[in-house]
Amino acid sequence: MAQGSIKRQNRNIVSHIILIIYSLIVIFPLWVMIINSFKDRLSIYQNPFMLPKKWNISNYGDVLRDGDFLVYFRNSFVVVILSLAILLIVGALASYALANWRGKWSRIIYFFCIAGMMLPIKIASIRLLELVRILGLLNTIWSLVPIYVAMGIPIAIFILTEFIRQVPWELTEAGIIDGASRFQVFSRIISPLLRPALATVAIYNLVPFWNDLWFPLIFISDDQAKTVLLGVTRLFGQYQTDWSKVLAVLTLSAIPVIALYLAMSKQFIQGLTAGAVKG
Length: 279
Known about the structure:
By secondary structure, this protein is mostly helical. It has one domain: MetI-like fold (Orthogonal Bundle), CATH 1.10.3720.10. The chain has 12 helices and no strands. Helix 7 crosses helix 9.
């Protein structure tokens, strides 16, 4: 008995050491980015890994005052929130239909949808550019929303469909017996149970949407429609780059992502406990 507890304790120690090392690896780039955003250009090259001798907050003031970065932040925020909202609604409804529609065509449509997980959407960039131009969305932030929704649909359907299939059929049957329609069953019974899976889908797609540079670079050239990362490219010069301002912008751009991530993580935990099915 004592040997078993010692083995478990040793495993816990090893796992904690591995997690600490992994945490340090993840935190180190953030540490370098944040501390160097408070330095001048020369100090970054002299000592990039230590705290600044003199904290220089003018980098943040210069970025917010001289550029259009508040507009870029607004554009990125609107695009990400709208894309996630549409993705969760469409993904949940499609997954509910596929989970309850049992048949050959249901399986074909399901595998067709999740096949998008294996095919990167960037390979169709030229065709997507043509579609965006035909729809009149070129040089607008609205051109990014359908692209991001299409990017997230495969993983959303994969996660949500499997989650809905695990919900006991007795719950749906009880709602139908009580006179509820299919949509009422979905909105009142299935949706509360879907919160953990919806939070997972949102968290999975949040960072790729926010950090995407490829499609804004292709679709947007108007300064007033640029996203944060596309706006950062304005700070890169041909012969020199003001890294202190670049890192200041990247630090500011990380704050909304971290805030949204923490908010969705909290919802994930609450949904996991509140949405549990009791036998």
